[in-house]
């Protein structure tokens, strides 16, 4: 008789098979979706396939905490690239924001300030006529800040086409994936956790598919965070971190809510240097667009007062009070209180180099960023699916059931595309809006109860929200 293989050998064989099968299954699901000629008519299939992928990512997180995966950075980035290539050359179907990007970037390359006038008030040159005709809300001056304009111009320089701009944004997104790996190592966390973003269907669809710029903002935010961890104890390091964070905030304004965390984790003697770098970064990026940059206030004001989509908390509060203005102000107050409560617990980095202490405090700070981002998404009156890219980029550091669920439920809001594409009617679904909010809340509650039951029974459970 032959002896059965040791348990460790069986476990190793199982882990190898799982490590090989998981990326293949994720790629197969996205390949099925990429074969659809019109995603706006394939929303049910998209939500089903992405649900499978998010379940696989949850399995990766659960199993990886117990039996770590041995995926190397090259494999993680290679699979990430392959997934993005599936959608790179397809037209942007789920969103038409990229045409505004091309319009702004093309004008900037021609030496025209994109804040000078709204597209509707401008005569397009020959090379931008098709782009001009596809811009949404052409009556408004661009709402995108100066750093975003720089990215638009860089992407528009690659042929001035949708594919060229998406190619540039995908490259930036892959840089973001690389930054995640570097930061995970710096924080003494396993590298395999980077797949929670790199293989996540949300950035694949929203950046490679629709060409959204949000990945650029998060790449700059993580760069600023990494600079603080590595050289924040020096004047130039803290100042450079502040300047890079200013650039992140001027790609999309949402990262501004994470500014207090960066400021507080900077070593105490260097916080003023961080603030000075931030102010200098704002000035250097904004001055070239003055005085016309002031006109962005009109577009931002209209967005803040009038825009709403998939905001369950906003809809509920407005229905209870009868006032949309009150609901917006109340939710802003709730968010600010939440930010204040979380940042008050964030410890500063040590003045003297200490890798272990820096890693611990860095992990604590990123968990705070994750919680703040979750609160932002659940309280904003307007929750477009690509807004959740900010949360997805933080999943590798603080992932839990609520975050994974929210990164999927936001895709349910694309249901609105079906009647809009067929009938030209924008009909939001209250049950979908409720699910986007309540599903992650239920997942968080279930994880808390599970963790408490596990503690009572002596069984540990992965941390996260």
Automatic annotation (TrEMBL):
<feature type="transmembrane region" description="Helical">
    <location>
        <begin position="207"/>
        <end position="231"/>
    </location>
</feature>
<feature type="transmembrane region" description="Helical">
    <location>
        <begin position="387"/>
        <end position="411"/>
    </location>
</feature>
<feature type="transmembrane region" description="Helical">
    <location>
        <begin position="168"/>
        <end position="187"/>
    </location>
</feature>
<keyword id="KW-0472">Membrane</keyword>
<dbReference type="Pfam" id="PF26314">
    <property type="entry name" value="MptA_B_family"/>
</dbReference>
<feature type="transmembrane region" description="Helical">
    <location>
        <begin position="41"/>
        <end position="62"/>
    </location>
</feature>
<feature type="transmembrane region" description="Helical">
    <location>
        <begin position="272"/>
        <end position="290"/>
    </location>
</feature>
<feature type="transmembrane region" description="Helical">
    <location>
        <begin position="243"/>
        <end position="266"/>
    </location>
</feature>
<keyword id="KW-0812">Transmembrane</keyword>
<feature type="transmembrane region" description="Helical">
    <location>
        <begin position="16"/>
        <end position="34"/>
    </location>
</feature>
<keyword id="KW-1133">Transmembrane helix</keyword>
<feature type="transmembrane region" description="Helical">
    <location>
        <begin position="68"/>
        <end position="90"/>
    </location>
</feature>
<feature type="transmembrane region" description="Helical">
    <location>
        <begin position="326"/>
        <end position="344"/>
    </location>
</feature>
<protein>
    <submittedName>
        <fullName>DUF2029 domain-containing protein</fullName>
    </submittedName>
</protein>
């Amino acid at each position: 008789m032959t002896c059965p293989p040791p348990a460790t050998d069986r476990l190793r064989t199982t882990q190898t098979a799982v490590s090989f099968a998981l990326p293949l299954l994720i790629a197969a699901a996205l390949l099925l979706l990429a074969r659809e000629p019109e995603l706006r008519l394939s929303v049910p299939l998209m939500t089903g396939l992405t649900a499978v992928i998010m379940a696989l990512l949850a399995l990766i997180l659960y199993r990886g905490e117990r039996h770590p995966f041995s995926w190397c950075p090259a494999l993680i980035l290679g699979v990430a690239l392959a997934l993005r290539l599936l959608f790179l050359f397809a037209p942007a179907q789920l969103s038409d924001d990229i045409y505004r990007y091309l319009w702004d970037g093309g004008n900037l390359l021609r030496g025209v300030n994109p804040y000078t006038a709204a597209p509707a008030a401008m005569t397009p040159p020959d090379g931008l006529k098709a782009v001009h005709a596809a811009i949404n809300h052409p009556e408004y001056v661009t709402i995108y800040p100066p750093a975003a304009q720089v990215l638009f111009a860089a992407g528009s320089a690659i042929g001035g086409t949708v594919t060229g701009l998406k190619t540039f944004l995908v490259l930036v997104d892959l840089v973001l994936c690389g930054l995640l790996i570097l930061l995970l190592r710096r924080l003494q966390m396993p590298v395999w956790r980077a797949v929670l973003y790199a293989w996540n269907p949300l950035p694949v669809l929203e950046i490679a598919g629709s060409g959204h710029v949000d990945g650029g903002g998060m790449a700059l935010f993580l760069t600023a965070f990494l600079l603080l961890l590595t050289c924040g104890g020096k004047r130039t390091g803290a100042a450079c971190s502040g300047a890079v964070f200013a650039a992140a905030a001027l790609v999309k304004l949402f990262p501004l809510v994470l500014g207090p965390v960066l400021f507080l984790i900077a070593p105490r003697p260097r916080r003023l240097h961080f603030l000075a770098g931030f102010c200098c970064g704002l000035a250097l990026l904004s001055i070239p667009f003055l005085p016309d940059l002031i006109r962005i206030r009109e577009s931002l004001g209209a967005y803040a007062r009038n825009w709403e989509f998939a905001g369950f908390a906003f809809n509920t509060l407005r229905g209870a009070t009868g006032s949309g203005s009150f609901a917006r102000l109340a939710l802003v107050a709730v968010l600010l209180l939440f930010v204040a409560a979380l940042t008050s617990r964030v410890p500063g980095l040590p003045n003297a180099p200490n890798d272990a202490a820096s890693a611990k405090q860095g992990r604590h700070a990123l968990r705070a960023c994750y919680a703040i981002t979750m609160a932002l998404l659940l309280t904003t009156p307007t929750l477009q699916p690509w807004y959740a890219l900010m949360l997805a980029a933080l999943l590798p550091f603080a992932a839990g059931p609520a975050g994974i669920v929210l990164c999927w439920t936001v895709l349910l809001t694309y249901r609105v595309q079906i009647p809009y594409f067929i009938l030209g009617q924008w009909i939001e679904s209250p049950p979908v809006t409720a699910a986007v909010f309540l599903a992650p809340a239920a997942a968080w509650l279930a994880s808390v109860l599970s963790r408490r039951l596990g503690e009572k029974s002596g069984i540990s459970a992965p941390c996260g929200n």
